[in-house]
């Protein structure tokens, strides 16, 4: 055995290892070259026949060959192995995780809040299950008054309170008017005018394409000295422009509410024809809700002197005014509460 043989053996081994295509082939090659009866060991056995000088030199070469073959086998095995699980390719494009978004009505509530907060209104919340007193009686609607029929009320099966009457699911956010006067009235004299924005859930016994049993209203209430209709008109126009676009306008028409005097219905110009009249709106306007100057009896119920203070109030449904936005020609508002992701994902 000489150095040339050894070199041949090493090169031959490295060549066949690099050409191996399966792990099975590799393990066969391992036995063939490095196994107990393998080629390297065969040569090792012959070492004892050599003289000491040759013995040392050949031994070293044999060890080198053994190391080279072992390494080649290991590398090739790695190449043929599938990537381990925790392997990380930092250049791979990232995985995007599905992300949700706020419900369209929550988005509308936030937008409405922002518009009024910039005018100095403070958002408040009042009970969604409230006494008859705050929902009707204190708003100048005594028991058995026919005006109450407008609000298709759902009553709670609970004990009646002597002063406050029955408990109801709030039919409108106007229940916040007298509650806010009671809260703020103590600081009112001279100092803090009321600029309330009450947004809450309302409930009425009505369900069709334009009504859901549960819906949301927002209610504005401003009380101070010398508040009049121009203040109301300015506020409504400001809201129209901010919510529907710079060309939008508001319009008020005489109406009757027991808790405002005078009372109005509020319309916004149609976003498609800007008030000229089109297929979508017919008249050029969309009716959204009610407004008026706070009735003296309501101020009194809230503990304020109507000779000193006056105010305006307005209120209507978030769903209604949201679905009038440009591009949102929703013909069935029940869809908003259908939990249908295919529908909701569009917003
Ligand atoms: N609460 C009335 C409704 O639900 C709207 C309204 C609010 C009217 C404030 C006048 C003043 O229809």
From TrEMBL:
Q: What is this protein called?
A: Phenylalanine--tRNA ligase alpha subunit
Where does the record place the Aminoacyl-transfer RNA synthetases class-II family profile domain? 112-320
Manner of cofactor binding, per the entry note: Binds 2 magnesium ions per tetramer.
Kindly list the places in or outside the cell where this protein is found, as annotated in its UniProt entry.
Cytoplasm
Q: Which reaction does it catalyse?
A: tRNA(Phe) + L-phenylalanine + ATP = L-phenylalanyl-tRNA(Phe) + AMP + diphosphate + H(+)
Q: Which Gene Ontology CC terms are recorded? A: cytoplasm
Q: Which GO terms describe its molecular function?
A: ATP binding; magnesium ion binding; phenylalanine-tRNA ligase activity; tRNA binding
Can you supply a Gene Ontology BP term from the record? phenylalanyl-tRNA aminoacylation
Q: Which PANTHER family match?
A: PHENYLALANINE--TRNA LIGASE, MITOCHONDRIAL (PTHR11538:SF41), PHENYLALANYL-TRNA SYNTHETASE (PTHR11538)
Sorted alphabetically, the keyword list is: Aminoacyl-tRNA synthetase, ATP-binding, Cytoplasm, Ligase, Magnesium, Metal-binding, Nucleotide-binding, Protein biosynthesis
Lineage runs: Bacteria, Candidatus Beckwithiibacteriota
Q: What is its main location?
A: cytoplasm
Q: Which InterPro entries match?
A: aa-tRNA-synth_II, aa-tRNA-synth_II/BPL/LPL, Phe-tRNA_ligase_II_N, Phe_tRNA_ligase_alpha1_bac, Phenylalanyl-tRNA_Synthase, tRNA-bd_arm
Instruction: Provide the gene name from the record.
Output: pheS
Subunit annotation: Tetramer of two alpha and two beta subunits.
């Amino acid at each position: 055995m000489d150095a040339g043989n050894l070199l041949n053996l090493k090169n031959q081994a490295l060549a066949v290892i690099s050409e191996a295509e399966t792990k099975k082939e590799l393990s066969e090659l391992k036995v063939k070259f490095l196994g107990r009866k393998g080629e390297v060991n065969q040569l090792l056995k012959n070492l004892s026949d050599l003289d000491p000088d040759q013995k040392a030199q050949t031994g070293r070469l044999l060890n080198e060959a053994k190391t080279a073959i072992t390494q080649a086998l290991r590398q090739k095995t790695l190449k043929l192995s599938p990537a381990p699980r925790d392997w990380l390719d930092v250049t791979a494009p990232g995985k995007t995780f599905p992300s949700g978004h706020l419900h369209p009505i929550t988005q509308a509530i936030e937008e409405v809040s922002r518009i009024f907060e910039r005018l100095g209104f403070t958002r408040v919340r009042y009970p969604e299950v409230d006494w008859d007193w705050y929902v009707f009686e204190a708003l100048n609607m005594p028991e058995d008054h026919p005006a109450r029929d407008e609000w298709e009320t759902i009553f709670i099966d609970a004990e009646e309170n002597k002063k406050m009457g029955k408990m109801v699911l709030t039919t409108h956010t106007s229940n916040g008017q007298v509650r806010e006067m009671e809260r703020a009235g103590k600081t009112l004299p001279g100092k803090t005018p009321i600029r309330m924005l009450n947004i809450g859930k309302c409930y009425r016994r009505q369900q069709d394409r334009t009504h859901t049993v549960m819906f949301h209203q927002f209610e504005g209430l401003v009380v101070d000295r010398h508040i009049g209709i121009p203040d109301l008109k300015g506020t409504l126009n400001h809201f129209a422009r901010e919510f529907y676009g710079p060309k939008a306008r508001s319009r008020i028409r005489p109406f009757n509410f027991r808790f405002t005097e005078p009372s109005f219905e509020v319309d916004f110009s149609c976003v498609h024809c800007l008030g000229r009249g089109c297929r979508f709106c017919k008249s050029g306007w969309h009716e959204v809700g009610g407004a008026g100057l706070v009735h003296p009896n309501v101020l009194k119920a809230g503990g304020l002197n109507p000779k000193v203070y006056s105010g305006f109030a307005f209120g209507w449904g978030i769903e209604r005014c949201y679905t009038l936005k440009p591009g949102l020609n929703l013909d069935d508002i029940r869809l908003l509460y259908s939990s249908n992701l295919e529908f909701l994902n569009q917003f």
